[in-house]
């Protein structure tokens, strides 16, 4: 559908300079064509004009191709013609709801953006408020089709799709399929591609910042991992009891003990014992 709309927009742009162009709709599987004359914004009347809504429907389905060729000046000024913008607007309205939903069945993930094409005839929008909302909703940044229905929940889906087709055919908005970026390969994918086994941690360490090693006295031994906050008072009480008795056994967990190079413990002052008692008292109050 998007490719077919692009072909139709190219035809309108080619005839925009006012040079008469022959617009040819041809079946892909059979040698059958239907022709119209387009001069700028004017679509000349002919006997096939009443079939235009069926031709446009088949174009959107992909069963027709559309091309145009310049034919030079006309012999006489055309007597009856239609404004192409008004005519396309009316023609899309004549396509049935079932056909509109079938044409747009996979459109929800398509991205919509406002083109630089100026809105030439606001009377189109005065006939259907959805058109004006659609044009200005996508004017600032491109958005997926589905976002409109999320923000305007009361809008009927078929009316919204019909408006998208009208505005895209008239080059007020652009429909695009934007591919999503490919995610970075996982560790397993790297292993399959390189044929080597590498742990996930090894992959992560590539971008890790360098950290200065910590001194032994600045860290808590592995045995002192805090698993339960409720055990802290018991540990501190044990620490105080050990200090008062002057024991030189291994220090209790959670409270680091200063050590001398020869491995013996420093003499603990009464001030430190009092500080431990204050910490214990504060924890119990919590």
Extended strand count? 8
Strand content: 5-15%
The total of helices stands at 12
N- to C-terminal distance: 69 Å
| Main β-sheet, spatial strand arrangement | 4-1-2-3-5
For the sheet with most strands, the description reads: 5 strands, antiparallel
Oligomerization: single chain
Which regions contain 5 or more consecutive residues with pLDDT less than 50? 181-194, 196-209, 216-228, 247-264
Secondary-structure element series: HEEEHEEHHEHHEHHEHHHH
User: What structural class do you assign from the helix and strand content?
Assistant: alpha+beta
Gross morphology: rod-shaped
Helix-residue proportion: 40-55%
Rg computed from alpha carbons, rounded to a whole number of angstroms: 39 Å
> What is the residue-mean pLDDT, rounded to a whole number?
75
């Amino acid at each position: 559908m998007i490719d077919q709309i692009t072909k139709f927009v190219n035809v309108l742009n080619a005839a925009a300079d006012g040079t008469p162009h022959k617009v040819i709709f041809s079946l892909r599987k059979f040698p059958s064509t239907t022709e119209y004359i387009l001069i700028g914004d004017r679509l000349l009347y002919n006997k096939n004009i009443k079939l235009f809504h069926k031709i446009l429907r088949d174009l959107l389905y992909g069963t027709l191709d559309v091309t145009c060729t310049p034919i030079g000046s006309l012999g006489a000024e055309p007597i009856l013609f239609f404004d192409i913008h008004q005519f396309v607007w009316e023609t899309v309205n004549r396509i049935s709801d079932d056909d509109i939903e079938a044409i747009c069945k996979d459109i929800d993930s398509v991205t919509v953006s406002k083109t630089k094409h100026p809105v030439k005839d606001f009377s189109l929008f005065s006939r259907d408020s959805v058109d004006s909302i659609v044009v200005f909703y996508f004017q600032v940044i491109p958005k997926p089709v589905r976002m409109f229905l999320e923000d305007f929940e009361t809008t009927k889906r078929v009316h919204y799709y019909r408006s998208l087709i009208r505005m895209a055919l008239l080059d007020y908005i652009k429909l695009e399929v934007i591919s999503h970026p490919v995610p970075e390969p996982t560790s397993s994918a790297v292993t399959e591609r390189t044929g080597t086994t590498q742990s996930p941690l090894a992959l992560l360490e590539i971008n890790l910042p360098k950290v200065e090693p910590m001194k032994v006295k600045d860290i808590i031994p592995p045995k002192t991992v805090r698993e339960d906050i409720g055990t802290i008072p018991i540990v501190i009480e044990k620490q105080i009891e050990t200090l008062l008795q002057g024991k030189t056994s291994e220090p209790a967990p959670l409270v680091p003990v200063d050590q001398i190079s020869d491995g013996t413990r420093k003499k603990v002052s009464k001030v430190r014992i009092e500080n431990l008692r204050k910490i214990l008292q504060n924890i119990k109050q919590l």
